[in-house]
Amino acid sequence: FRPEAIVASVPFALDGRERCYVVRSVRGEVEGAPSEAKCVVPSDDTPPEPPANLIVRANEGEISLVWEPNAEPDVAGYLVLRGEAGDATLTPVTDTVVTEARYTDRTVRPGVRYVYAVQAIDSRLPRPNVSGESAREEVTAR
């Protein structure tokens, strides 16, 4: 069997509602019998890309971070991660998602070398998809 044409394509909706599809072959004016219906609840299981171009700068009593905003339309915000130099694991700096592509960490101690990374969070419910870490950047607090 070789299909002559795709008769219709259906947009993929991620609204949590079940969608059912059937397929039938078409040759000229003759349509074949429909396939058995296949029903699915489409879901977004793809995390956003890690944020890019993280820049960290030490100022007196604070460290400023900026990065390139993600292009995915469903990005809800970002997690800012921090550790001290040599730490393998970074932990979130805030309890909430940062909605802009910048953050100022005012909880730093002068003379300590910190490591930062950022993760993008999408709007999937009930559990959002989380990107991998951005490239890590180190800076010494002043």
Layout: helices, strands, pairs:
Layout: E1 19-21, E2 26-27, E3 30-31, E4 38-40, E5 52-59, E6 62-68, E7 75-84, E8 91-92, E9 102-105, E10 113-122, E11 137-140
Antiparallel strand pairs: 1-4, 2-3, 5-6, 6-9, 7-8, 7-10, 10-11
What attributes does this structure have?
single chain, 142 residues, mainly beta, four-stranded antiparallel sheet, three-stranded antiparallel sheet, 11 strands, 0% helix, disordered N terminus
The rounded distance between the terminal residues' Cα atoms is 71 Å
Mean pLDDT level: 89
Strand portion, in percent?
Answer: 35-45%
Instruction: Provide a count of the helices.
Output: 0
Structural class: mainly beta
Ranges with pLDDT <50 over ≥5 residues? 1-7
- Rounded to an integer in angstroms, the radius of gyration calculated over CA atoms is 23 Å
Looking across the biggest beta sheet, what order are the strands in?
8-7-10-11
What is the H/E order?
EEEEEEEEEEE
Shape: rod-shaped
Strand tally: 11
Largest sheet: 4 strands, antiparallel
How much helix is in the residues?
under 10%
Task: Explain how this protein is built.
With 142 residues, the protein is an all-beta fold. Helices cover 0% and strands 39% of the residues. It has strands spanning 19-21, 26-27, 30-31, 38-40, 52-59, 62-68, 75-84, 91-92, 102-105, 113-122, 137-140. A four-stranded antiparallel beta sheet has the order 8-7-10-11, with no helix packed on it. Strands 5-6-9 form a three-stranded antiparallel beta sheet, with no helix packed on it. Strands 1-4 form a two-stranded antiparallel ribbon. The termini are far apart.
